Amino acid sequence: MERWDADAVGWVRRRSGLAAPEGHVFHELKVPSYRTTEHLGNAILSAGWTRILNLLIGTGSTQAMDATHTRVGVGDGTTAVTTADTTLTGSTNKYFKTAAGVGTIGAGAGPPTTTLTIAATFGISQANFDWRKFGVDFGTADGTTEVAPLLNAAVSNQGTKASGQIWTATATLSWT
Predict the structure, then answer these.
(1) Strands across the sheet with 43-44, in order?
(2) What is the mean pLDDT of each run of 10 residues along the chain (176 residues)?
(3) What DSSP designation does 143 have?
(4) pTM higher than 0.85, yes or no?
(5) Which of 2, 8, 59, 137 could form a disulfide with 33 if both were Cys (CB 3.0 to 4.6 A apart)?
(6) CA separation (Å) from 120 to 14, 58, 70, 99, 112?
């Protein structure tokens, strides 16, 4: 998670002319986040595995992950994750943001790439609550409702996002 406070947001808005700058704009203007944290470990949920396997064998009309059909979600729940979960269980507040960029899986020189990166930037008025849980789903619009299936989830206390701040959540899924 990368976080920019209201002062940094105001500076980037003035400098870029953008009303709602994405995380990459802060990077391009070399504005460091006031805090960056990392959480290791999450669970791929049963519904997520089913979606992955359906994509591998071409079953039905399963939509692949792309920037139009993938969202990062955050919630304030603290309930432990189980593989049977279909939502950000225990969250009173939750918000899903369409991914700004979905990485690719492929082989380069050397070992094959086994990592998928998904990033979403939450604007100044989005998800202003305590971030304690996160996940990725296959939705197509920003909102408060999960769209089946929920691919993964984890409990991770990231703090409270306040109005005026912009936070970027990046999910990196690695397979070994």
Answers:
(1) 43-44, 150-160, 130-137, 71-75, 94-98
(2) 96 95 94 94 90 86 82 95 91 92 57 78 96 93 87 94 95 80
(3) B
(4) yes
(5) 2
(6) 22, 27, 9, 4, 25
